[in-house]
Amino acid sequence: MSEFFISLFEGWGFLKVPEQIEYLSDFGALAFNIWETIYVPALATLFAYIIGLPLGIILVTGEEGGVSPMPKVLMDVLNTIVNLLRSVPFLILMVMVIPLSRLILGTSVGTAATIVPLTVAAAPYVARLVEISLREMDRGVIEAAQAMGCSPWQIVTKVMLPECRPSLINGLTNASITILGYGAMAGAIGGGGLGSVALMRGHGRNQKIVMYAAVIILVILVQVIQSIGTAWSVKSDRRINNNTKSKRRKSL
Amino acid sequence: MRVSEAIIQIQHLSKTFGGGEDAVHALEDISLEIQQGEIFGIIGLSGAGKSTLVRCMNLLERPTAGTVLVDGQDLTSLSEKELRLARRKITMIFQGFNLLMQRTCLKNVCFPMEIAGVPSAQAKKRAGELLELVGLGEKAAAYPAQLSGGQKQRVAIARALATEPKVLLCDEATSALDPTTTVSILGLLKELNHRLGVTVVVITHQMSVIEEICSRVAILDGGSVAEMGEVQEIFSNPTTDAARRLVYPGGVSAVQMPESARVVRISFNGGTAYDPLIASLAIDCGVKVNILGADTRNVGGKAVGTMLLGLPAHPSEAAKALSYIRAQKNITVEEVPDYHE
Ligand SMILES: Nc1ncnc2c1ncn2[C@@H]1O[C@H](COP(=O)(O)OP(=O)(O)OP(=O)(O)O)[C@@H](O)[C@H]1O
Ligand SMILES: [Mg+2]
Fold first, then answer.
1. What is the pLDDT of residue A174?
2. Ranges of H-type helices in B48-199
3. What is the CA(B48)–ligand 2 centre distance, in A?
4. Cα distance between residue A82 and residue A40, in whole Å
5. Would you say residue A250 has pLDDT above 60?
6. A2, A36, B102, B312: which could form a disulfide with A193 (CB 3.0–4.6 Å)?
7. Which residues contact B58 (CB under 8 A, 6 or more apart)?
8. Residue A33 in contact with residue A106, Cβ under 8 Å?
9. Phi/psi of residue A75, each to 5°?
10. How far is CA B322 from the centre of its chain?
């Protein structure tokens, strides 16, 4: 079996084919790299939302004329921080937050340590995504809620977030995919996962087959996340006439 | 509770947006009283300040000056928290319905009760009853996107009634609806006013809406009240320019230029229509008058309207015609000093 591939790839002009096939057929090693590629961005996404979701909400509710206006100075500071963090290239940011990683995790190297720079880079991005979603909110509905005696907290939790759910889900999909991409980049500074495999083996050791395989797996992961996210968003959106669709399906 | 008790008292209310040179004086020194249980109309052209006024009634907009008393409570003196409680008693419906699109109709009606801390089971039961009341019992599980405009407004009305309000504010509630649906929504408001005793404040730029359901009306023009009183009185005999513009949107058009020296405006305050008057003028006193323009309408089942008459050039004939018209019941005569057009 593997001999067939070896002669096939060698016939195509690839070098060092046997060791690459050996790596790719070691299911445990590959699976572990895939697992790292998923769990690191997943955790980073979670932490980015823990910071970015409230921040995004404040960016909308705290502005002048918002549900709960905040001092303009504070809003300016928040906006500036978000913009600054977003304008630092990720590779540079990763180096810049090394002291922070040491502080939080006690180490700045290794797969888990990349969660810190990923979170720092993604949180302001998530804040903007949340902000964009919440700005789609119909002002009239918020006004109606205020007229019914909703507190700002109730407006956020019972009106804005539920009403913007489809758009927030799209944002989450978008954020996960972006963080997955950043996570692959983190391979450059010693993070694990497919990104590091593609870099170390593909580039470093000229194992091009492994590199293509890693990239193909990343592409598939992105496709899967996008499909699940879109389907979830559409399914959760009650403005789309789900009932008639399902009725039609039943009658067919 | 006496019927004549004022539920809303607005005193010297002013609202200015912005400051300095760009300041917009949306409302200037408005004072009015709305009685418990009545259907009160506020009419005015676009930009007159109607929405601002109604938003001042539940303090969605904080007045620059003046007080707003609802059910004896001065809203301007309340803290944010007290204000939120007070707002349960003065609810609102809108031109754009403003329903929660991700909730079923039943859940929409439950919403204000959820906010007020009503236990879920109890809220659901009451929401179901309210949907029945507005004629949408079978739509409880539907989402707003599946409803027509009229149905959406019915859900909004049910939602507005959930906290048993004393006042229902309607800001252009029928402006997005077709005429037939408008009539049915107005009918519903009238019925609710009758059955539940809820005071209804109707904001509109449509005369027909006021005629259909209001007992009293305030005409808003450029941020102040131009005229206020019984609908029939105001519509049959508008005395200010603002009122005339609304009552006769097309203007009282001149049909033919008068050779006559004097022009009078006669107003019909219910009772007979105007056609027989002109005929009987000719028959009874042998005087012919020019009809320069006329506009009549039906208010509360009675014919009201005005007509511009050009009196004969001869002074004695003119006087004869005038005294004949003055003798008629339900007709008021007013001379138009500088008639031209
Ligand atoms: N938030 C605001 N900031 C500045 N100006 C405002 C604001 N809201 C209203 N205005 C101004 O106040 C005036 C009255 O507006 P308002 O919305 O009350 O009019 P309206 O009678 O309801 O008109 P329409 O029939 O078009 O709804 C307008 O000149 C408007 O431009
Ligand atoms: Mg308005």
1. 96
2. 50-57, 80-86, 105-116, 120-133, 149-161, 179-196
3. 8
4. 23
5. no
6. A36
7. A147, B70, B75, B87, B90, B92, B169
8. no
9. -65, -40
10. 34
Q: Which residue has a Cα nearest atom 22 of ligand 1?
A: B51
Interface mutation target, options B101, B113, B171, B201, chain A, most CBs of A under 10 Å: B101
Do B206 and B246 meet the contact criterion of CB atoms below 8 Å apart?
A: no
Tens digit of each residue's pLDDT (9 = 90 or more) over B179-229: 899 999 999 999 999 999 999 999 998 888 998 899 999 999 999 999 999
Q: Give Cα separations from A10 to A19, A22, B210 (angstroms).
A: 12, 14, 88
- Interface contact A237-B102, CB threshold 8 A: yes
Would you tell me which residues 162-221 of chain A have a C-beta closer than 8 angstroms to some C-beta of chain B?
162-163, 165
Task: Please check whether residue B110 is in contact with residue B102, taking contact to mean a CB–CB distance below 8 angstroms.
Answer: no
**Residue A208 in tokens:** 């091009």
Report ipTM (2 d.p.). Answer: 0.85
Check A239 against B102: CB less than 8 A apart: yes
Please report which residue ranges of B139-178 form alpha helices under DSSP H.
149-161
Question: Regarding beta strands B302-310 and B65-70, do their DSSP bridges make them parallel or antiparallel, or are they unpaired?
Answer: unpaired
Summarize pLDDT for B19-38 with one digit per residue, the tens. 888 899 999 999 999 999 99
Candidates B266, B330, B270; CA nearest to B297 is: B270
Residue A159 CA, distance from chain mean position: 25
CA B274 to chain centre: 26
Pick left, alpha or beta for residue B228 (phi over 0 → left; psi -120 to 50 → alpha; otherwise beta): beta
Give every CB contact of residue B261 below 8 A, 6+ residues apart in sequence: B311, B313, B318
Encoded tokens for B148? 């027509």
Length, in residues, of chain A: 252
Quote the tokens at residue A12: 């195509």
Q: What angle do CA B248, B252, B257 make, to 5 degrees?
A: 175
